[in-house]
Design brief:
Elements (H helix, E strand, L loop, with lengths): L23 E4 L3 H13 L4 E4 L8 H4 L8 H13 L3 E3 L12 H6 L15 E4 L9
Length: 136
């Protein structure tokens, strides 16, 4: 099965509608965000920004997976492909109360009322949470 999404952004997409200017924030620069940003950029979205809390990018692919299983140059290659499509990465930015706050996320989770909702700086957020639970 082919996905039929080109590796590079077709030139004619640059002139298409305003929906491609949607501001998208991706939290964390791990494999999920890299994949999401790459595909959105290939589809024509131009305003993609990834916020990573660490000094390095790639998430667990860069820090925890052994080199013999996933060489770091493969991870860097995928990240460079994504950057070539225009995705911006900001390191040492973390989700919390003092740096990046997403009040809209708290509203959606019903943790704060609508009256406390501050207009967010981005139109769309991508947040992939990877959690391991140990069952006794």
């Amino acid at each position: 099965m082919q996905m039929r999404i080109p590796q590079v952004r077709p030139p004619h997409i640059l002139a298409e509608g305003p929906s491609y200017d949607t501001k998208v924030a991706l939290i964390g620069c791990g494999p999920a965000s890299v994949s999401c940003a790459t595909f959105l950029a290939r589809l024509g979205y131009r305003n993609l920004k990834i916020f990573e809390k660490e000094k390095y990018i790639g998430g667990l692919s860069s820090s925890e997976i052994p080199q013999y299983r996933l060489p770091i140059n493969v991870v860097h290659y995928e990240i460079q492909l994504m950057k070539d499509l225009g995705v911006e990465i900001q390191n040492e930015r973390k989700l919390g109360t003092s740096d990046i706050t997403i009040t809209v996320l708290f509203f959606l989770l019903k943790l704060i009322p609508y009256s406390k909702l501050i207009r967010p700086s981005f139109n769309l957020y991508f947040l992939f949470i990877w959690v391991i639970f140990q069952l006794d």
